[in-house]
Design goal:
Blueprint: E1 3-9, E2 13-19, E3 25-32, H1 41-57, E4 62-69, H2 78-88, E5 95-99, H3 100-108, E6 115-119, E7 123-128, E8 134-138, H4 150-168, H5 175-185, H6 190-199, H7 202-206, H8 209-217, H9 221-245, E9 250-253, H10 261-270, E10 275-276, H11 282-296
Parallel strand pairs: 1-4, 4-5, 6-9, 9-10
Antiparallel strand pairs: 1-2, 2-3, 6-7, 7-8
Helix pairs in contact: 1-2, 4-9, 5-8, 8-9, 9-10
Length: 297
């Protein structure tokens, strides 16, 4: 049984769906995250490893595939094409790919006409007009911004906490946040912090948003302030899209939205009009794209 493969690759996890020839779901799974930022050996190894894990988990060979890949950008990427083709044994005509936000937009607005803000490890907003032209805001990477994302939450919480420690010599008033972060980082000294932030990837950093949210739920005021600011950053992305493209439905997706209710409350409070929080299945949508392209080829 050959399958049609759809992949939604994010910095924290890669989700995949395999359809049988009739269009039914034959299998689905989740593996390690990676990105299309394969500019160095570790990035390329992570990308190849994530793809190889998916290939090994498939119930049969993929005859066609479509992938949404975070960090893939909006222009052709020859090395991505080379690695996808090599790992799955597919000629270039048998697979397609895009950055993950384009895939998510099509899954959220199959009929078009909306603005999408996605907040996971990174964050980005997009609107695609009837002619296929995309307006994209944010999404320039965690070293630049990615406001409101998991990595942004983690890095802002670390920065604000250590400013408090600089001022007082201890985490005055932010003890819950300190305990949560130091557990996630693996220590409280400079060496542990450097090793975690500079020695890891953005997916690992983004996962630290979970203990920040846990500290906020436990009543830590500094953690809650960071969480609420994250909601404000996502609102900013939506307003930028609406300001450039005019009135349109707005949808928010991504794991950050489930971290703490204050994020969704901030979005609903600050944005007038209809705001949706759809539960999309981007990997399933990608698999249907692969199958449909094969059937109409």
């Amino acid at each position: 049984m050959a399958v049609y493969l759809g992949v939604d690759m994010g910095g924290t996890a890669s989700r995949w769906v395999a359809l049988d020839e009739s269009g039914g779901v034959a299998a689905r799974g989740q593996g390690r995250g990676a990105s299309g930022l394969i500019h160095d050996a570790p990035g390329l190894a992570a990308f190849d490893g994530a793809l190889a894990d998916i290939r090994a988990a498939l119930p049969d060979r993929a005859i066609a595939a479509h992938l949404g890949i975070t960090g893939a950008g909006f222009s052709p990427h020859p090395l991505i094409e080379e690695r996808v083709g090599a790992v799955f044994g597919l000629p270039r005509a048998r697979f397609g790919y895009s950055t993950d936000i384009v895939l998510a937009w099509h899954a959220a607005f199959p009929q078009g006409g909306g603005c999408l803000v996605s907040a996971g490890t990174g964050s980005v907003g997009i609107f695609i007009d009837a002619g296929g032209a995309a307006t994209v805001v944010g999404g320039r990477g965690v070293l630049v911004d990615d406001g409101g994302s998991g990595a942004w939450i983690a890095l802002r919480a670390i920065a604000r906490l250590f400013r408090v420690i600089d001022d007082h010599g201890h985490p005055e008033g932010a003890e819950r946040l300190a305990a949560a972060l130091f557990t996630g980082i693996g220590g409280s000294d400079r060496d542990a912090l450097r090793a975690f932030v500079h020695g890891g990837d953005r997916g690992r950093i983004g996962m630290l948003a979970v203990p920040v949210a846990q500290a906020a739920r436990a009543g830590d005021p500094l953690a809650l302030a960071v969480i609420e600011d994250a909601g404000g950053e996502l609102v900013r992305l939506a307003r930028a899209l609406l300001g450039r493209g005019g009135p349109a439905p707005v949808a928010f997706v991504g794991g950050v939205l489930g971290l703490h209710p204050a994020i969704r409350r901030r979005i609903e409070r600050d944005l007038a009009g209809t705001v949706a929080f759809p539960r999309i299945d981007a990997a399933l949508h990608a698999a249907h794209i692969a199958r449909q392209k094969d059937l109409t080829a």
